[in-house]
Amino acid sequence: MNNSGAQPPAGTQAIRRALGVLRLLMEEGGELSLSAIARRLDLTPGTTHRVVGALSVDGLVAHNPHTDCYHLGAGAILLGQAAQRVHGLERALPVIRQVNADTGESVNIAVREGGESVVLLRAQSTLPLRFEQHPGARFPLYTTASGKAMLAHSLDVEAYLASLPERLPALTTHTLSRREELALELTETRDRGYSIDDEENVAGVRCVGAAVLDEQGLARAAVVIQVPTVRLPDERIPELGARAVAAAREVAQFLPPDRFIQR
């Protein structure tokens, strides 16, 4: 039977809208008014009011009466904490905090979702000059140290490369411009054990990353150290690369073997 014209299950649209509100508030990292939520998600005011109201009933979204805006509620916090426990991230957090304390730099754990790298955990640098980021941030795999580390140890790397346009969309003037350049860099990443983002994702920020591997050597996640370019000369890269590799090996002990792998 051909199901190409089949309608989505009843309620799918409502679920997508609710998830859209939650993701928007997560990515915003603060509060938004109903009108702002409606505008950003291209919803009508009435639909937005109903969706936000339903999420508020279960505490996933909360209302600030002083600003008349909405933010993620206690229910979302509890859900996130439960997910961290299930995925082993609660035990991985001290690892990246230690790397952060030892290096003074920001440290992430990221996973792959399709063609993007998504930040799950972050230990922020306390130094005055730093790159601000938050869990939930997502970027193209080919522009990031996390993405390149994971691609270098993925079974579908050839299919991923083939899916890219010949000229890669640039996020900065340093972004790799061709598939062939990316393929060569992935080979170099496998050979040296860690990846490098040389201001390819954010101007003024260099990163090194290492894949968190399973027993078959496939990437499950990545540990990334982010540094302002002025604090990361070429001679410091091997030192931080080795630190990222060691942290990734430690994190691998805590992630369940069937989580986060993209085959």
Automatic annotation (TrEMBL):
PROSITE patterns per UniProt: HTH_ICLR, ICLR_ED
Domain HTH iclR-type: 12-74
UniProt cross-references to SMART domains, sorted A to Z: HTH_ICLR (SM00346)
UniProtKB keywords: DNA-binding, Transcription, Transcription regulation
Record-linked InterPro entries: GAF-like_dom_sf (IPR029016), HTH_MetabolicPath_Reg (IPR050707), Tscrpt_reg_IclR_C (IPR014757), Tscrpt_reg_IclR_N (IPR005471), WH-like_DNA-bd_sf (IPR036388), WH_DNA-bd_sf (IPR036390)
Keyword Transcription regulation: yes
Location of the IclR-ED domain: 75-257
One Pfam family per UniProt: HTH_IclR
Name of the protein in question: IclR family transcriptional regulator
High-level lineage: Bacteria, Bacillati, Actinomycetota, Actinomycetes, Pseudonocardiales
